[in-house]
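seq:
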Amino acid sequence: MRSSTRNRAVVGTLVGLGILGGATGFTVAQAEPVHQQAPTPPAAVIQQPVLSIDAATKAAQAALDAAEAKGQRVTVSIVDRAGNERVRLTGDGAGPQSGESAKRKAFTAVAWNRATSELGKQAGGNGPSLRDIPGTLFLGGGVPVAAGTPIAGIGVAGAPSGDLDEEFARAGLNAIQAELR
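struct:
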């Protein structure tokens, strides 16, 4: 007799849980999806576009592939508008100085929204000049990435000339150009 009372208690509990679970599941299934809108930033805050990590990686890999196709050992750096490095790819055999040079070229390109080969022609002369600004490098090999405004820079260093470095940086830009529109 004791086991039948226990069985009824267990069965009753399971049935009760089943009903509760079904009702809860039904309620959840019937609920409207919640669409949360991003909060509006305060008036003193601005939002700036940033190149996604996927796009930055794609550009860096395309630049490195272009260099390797020509037998060049380079480093590729992608920086954001503030000069923070988002991606760095150092090719096999690239020189130890190429990392810092690539980063500085990338920053220079995004800061002025121009290729570093163009800027280098204007940064000469005696006395103080653009070349004195910390973190910049006015040698060919840096190109800006823009989506309405400059959002990133691609810098390549390590090839025997800035023209080659810039060719590889442009290959990186070309790889993501369609995604910037």
